[in-house]
Every structure is written in structure tokens, then in C-alpha cells.
Amino acid sequence: MAASRRICVYPGTFDPITRGHLDIIDRGVKLFDLLVVAVAESPGKAPLFSAQERLAMIREEVGRHRNVKVESFDSLLMDYVRNKGANIVLRGLRVMSDFEYEFQMALINRKLDPSIETVFMMTSDNYAPVSSRFIKEIARYGGDERL
Asked: What is the per-residue pLDDT for 4?
């Protein structure tokens, strides 16, 4: 019997993608056969970059990985994960406050579909203080956003 493929979805707004996100992707590709970076369109969040711009930025950064696919979605995450044939959601954690939010989301997602597991990965410590929110603020005022 052939082993099933480990397909994982790494969802987020990625507005913009940070080195912390890329750290999670670089490490996640070693654990899964296919890592789908799922860019949430999130019009309610009023993103700085359009979904197409975010997709292009991420594809440019992760092009070296053969087992990464970058797509956008505008649906319930659990529906998207099922449609991809995945059963794992990857979430990155930077600080303790991230855990509280992510834990609540994982519990809700488990109620929606108990067959889909959430895996948490801590970002490397040198990226922990940097968030997309800070990078957007720095970019708005003309600072160097390459943190």
C-alpha cells in the first residue's frame, strides 16, 4: 500500500509576507510533501497589497521550493483545506499573544472538521518581534521595510 501524501495548507493574509513567514515556509517544506501557501483575500482587513500583488511577492520568494504551491482563497478555511485534499493546517507563532488567538481558531476549526489537524510552528527567535503590521507602518512612512 502506498503512503498517502502529506498535504499541508499554510493560510494567512501575508500583507506583506515577512521573513518570519518565509522561515515557517522554509522549515515546513521539509515536513510535508506539498505545502500550499493560501493567501486569504481578506477584503474586510483592507490589505495594503492586493491579493494578486501578495501572490506575486510570495511566488518570487518561494520559487526555489518544488513542493510549494501559492494560491489565494476567499472561503471558509476548512472548506478550502478539504478541497485541496489536505488534512493539516500550519500556523506560525511569534509571541505568546499569537498562541491565544491561534489556539481559539484551531479549536473552532476542529469543531468544523475534526479530521483536519492544526500544527503550530514557532518562528525563529530573530524574526519573533517583526509582524506584517509593523512592516506596513514602516513602509507607509518611507522606512526600510526589509526586516
From this structure: 77
Entry field: residues in the chain: 147
Q: Is 14 a member of any domain?
A: yes
The residues carrying an active-site annotation are 21, 45, 94, 132
Contact (Cβ atoms closer than 8 angstroms) between residue 36 and residue 65: no
> What is the predicted pLDDT for the residue at 139?
64
What nine digits make up the cell of 78? 476548512
Q: Does 88 map to a domain?
A: yes
Please, what is the Cα angle at 92 between 91 and 96, to 5 degrees?
Answer: 115
Q: 3-7, 119-123, 128-132: which range is least confident on average?
A: 128-132
* CATH number of the domain encompassing residue 72: 3.40.50.620
- Structural domain of residue 99, as residue ranges? 7-140
- pTM of the predicted model, to two decimals? 0.86
